[in-house]
Amino acid sequence: MLTQWQVATPDPTAQVRLATELSLSPLLCQVLINRGITDATSAGTFLTPSLHDLHDPYQILGMDAAVRRITAAVQQGEPMAVYGDYDVDGVTATALLMTFFEELGLRVASYIPEREGEGYGLNAEAMHQLSRQGTRLLITVDCGSTALSEVALARELGIDTIITDHHQPPETLPAALAVLNPHQPGCGYPNKHLCGVGLVFKLLTALRASMRQIGVLRERLPNLKRHLDLVALGTIADVTPIRGENRVIVHYGLQELTHTLKPGLQALRQVSGRQGKTANAGEVGFQLAPRLNASGRLGSAAQSLELLIARDSGVAEHLAASLDAVNRQRRTLQQNVEQAVHERIGQQYGGTPPAAIVLGDADWHLGVVGIVAARIAETYHRPTFLLQITSGTARGSGRSIPAFNLYDGLQHCAEWLQQFGGHRYAAGLTMAAEHLPALQEAFIRYADDRLGPDDMQPVVGLDAVVLLADITEKLVSELTALAPHGSGNPAPVFAAYGVRCASPIRRLGQEGQHARFRVEQDDVSREAIAFQQGDHVAEVAAGGGEFDIAFTPVINTWRDRRTLELQLRDLRPHLPQPH
After folding, report:
1. 155, 200, 419, 519: most buried by Cβ count inside 10 Å?
2. Predicted structure pTM score
3. Which are the contacts of 249, defined by CB distance < 8 A and separation ≥ 6?
């Protein structure tokens, strides 16, 4: 698929001003400007995150009521329970609350529904079960905003409910004792991009301050900074923008993760091959989070929760090994479903799908359709829903592209749905299978009305056009101040035009899917590596002429040897540039 290259418009005046005021390289300043950071104060805040920049948690609507009720429950010894979700955000949020209460010397129950049997969010049977256990205060994490009937039932059963959730709320909220959701009407909290565990962190920040002020268990109050490792895990895994408050949380959370004392996280890093290394966002996104997610995708997320709250190293190592094995099983299932989806797209659309992809099948595992939807959306650059059909019901997940709001699309098609929820880029739904053709037609028509041809082409955003000579170890070292990267703060990508291949192309990986080679421009050469682009590299370089590359420069450290290398995002035959 043809990829658009979009180079950010340079701003020489702001670039020179920032470079002079902060003694930074002009190229780093241009990257900051591309991210909307144009003055020295904002740049300083961005480059040196501080915990003092976190917002007052009491700005969240409902926080005062939530803190008062939890404090009363702690003082009176009321039985409490945490109701979580089965993804990494929900599991880390549940673990954070349970760890906090455990350090206070309190035993708190937990409940995480099973994806296959119960689905997302609160359900009536769970409310009855929690009631039978004696629960009097229920705190939801990463769910609950749409649970009108379940919260009403809990109230009938004598359970007060506090909802903490970051998903788009409906017009009518549940009649909970308190609802903490930055998206609810009337909430003026500045950070609308808190994930579930981030919201729990804000709740505990307020709760800890209140308990300290009134002298409740003051000598046992936990140090919340030590638990930012859990908050960073959920924040990165939930693909929330790593800007502002979230950037502060992830910055310090990765520091805590590097030196974590939690046996579960130590064991998880060990099976992921990351023990003893500096933690980064890539480690969380590609190694830790998939293993934590695997149990919730294929069975019960209780195993992942048990790992995160484990206090015994031997137990933690056993659980981590088990999650690693489940994750390998998940990968196999995912590959099978992904291959089947590609085949369906080829059969139904000749390989070129319409403006949206909506497909269902009885053989697709519910636990992996969301991941596969993300990969299909990326491959074809179309909003995508993949559904599992069983017993007359279709359930599944969707992922979107920048130009399309997935939640709005579902609202437009609500007449065909039994349940749905989510946000712009990710959502889930449940519906009668017999209505799937109607949903396909309505959703595709809605997408077709809103997406133009350019919207359905992938875009590589470029921070600047550079010469290979500009890319030095000193520059790459300076660029590390921009990390941690993620949504809202991508790693910098540069373009070099008119380079040549300066070495034979080495194909790497079991099927030669990667390629390593040297590129040259004006007698300056650099090592380059292209992941999952081996065939494309061979095709573009085959003619022996000049080509253009889009890349992120990194320092690759292997056995104490440091190598400057260009990680290619894309390459194309050289296009002469207008002067």
Report:
1. 200
2. 0.92
3. 54, 198, 201, 228, 231, 232, 235
CA 289 – CA 284 distance, rounded (Å): 6
E strand or H helix at 465: strand 464-465
* Dihedrals phi, psi of 215, to nearest 5 degrees: 80, 25
Which residues are registered as beta bridge partners of 5? Answer: 460
pLDDT in tens, 8-23: 999 999 999 999 999 9
- pLDDT tens digits along 447-464: 999 999 999 999 999 999
pLDDT of 133: 96
State how far the alpha carbon of 57 is from the alpha carbons of 104, 202, 222, 407, in Å. 21, 5, 17, 27
Which domains does the chain show, CATH number per domain? 53-324 (3.90.1640.30), 353-456 (3.10.310.30), 459-573 (2.40.50.460)
Q: Is 259 helix (H, G, I), strand (E, B) or coil?
A: coil
DSSP secondary structure letter of residue 287: I
Residue 482 one-letter amino acid: L
CB contact at 8 A, 316 and 266: yes
Q: What are phi and psi of 525, to 5 degrees?
A: -120, 150
Q: Rounded to whole angstroms, how far apart are CA atoms 422 and 142?
A: 11
φ and ψ of 235, to 5 deg = -65, -45
Q: Which of 326, 442, 270, 333 is nearest to 86 (CA)?
A: 326
* Cβ 249 vs Cβ 201: under 8 Å: yes
- Tally helices (H) and strands (E) across the chain: 20, 19
Model confidence pLDDT, tens digit, residues 258-300: 999 999 999 999 999 999 999 999 999 999 999 999 999 998 8
Residue 26, SS3 per DSSP: helix
Whole-Å CA distances, 435 to 396, 438, 466, 502: 14, 5, 52, 57
- The residues with which 501 forms a beta bridge, in sequence order, are 519
- Which pair of tokens denotes residue 287? 């190694």
Q: What 3-state DSSP class applies to 557?
A: strand
In angstroms, the CA 56 to CA 239 distance is: 23
User: 131, 83 in Cβ contact below 8 A?
Assistant: no
Calpha distance 46→270 (Å, rounded)? 31
Q: Which residues contact 380 (CB under 8 A, 6 or more apart)?
A: 1, 345, 353, 357
How far is residue 220's CA from residue 212's CA, in Å, rounded to a whole number? 10
Closest Cα to residue 450, out of 383, 379, 399? Answer: 383
Q: How many CA atoms lie within 13 A of 6 on its CB side?
A: 10
- Token pair for 37: 């950071």
